[in-house]
User: What shape does this take?
Amino acid sequence: MTAKISYADVEVGTELPAQTFPVTRDTLVRYAGASGDFNPIHWNEKFAKEVGLPDVIAHGMFTMAEAIRVVTDWTGDPGAVVEYGVRFTKPVVVPNDGQGAVIEVAGKVAAKLDDNTVRVDLTVTCAGQKVLGMSRAVVRLA
Assistant: This one.
């Protein structure tokens, strides 16, 4: 695959289409099975509260993966991501209320770099709080 977005067509400040990603307890159980991360803070409410959390929380890597989807959907090629990193700032709390939580992600081209690459900065929030900080990806465009 090759990125569908052309480097020449992108300017600093270009906004990527924002997306929202619902997260339920079911989502967390499925992710635990796929990732092998069965830490009870991600599925056992009683345990999560006993260790000082407000409720069950989403896996950090799950949150990170959902956020980068904004970039991979925009480029049309997951292989276009050259670098990706975040800081985990707040947990995504997932109540057992049938609704769960919603991760909101917006992205913007922050810099045009060499070799047809751009840096995309992501803003990732849940319930009005930033859950990932310094969320940045370097992406190779067409």
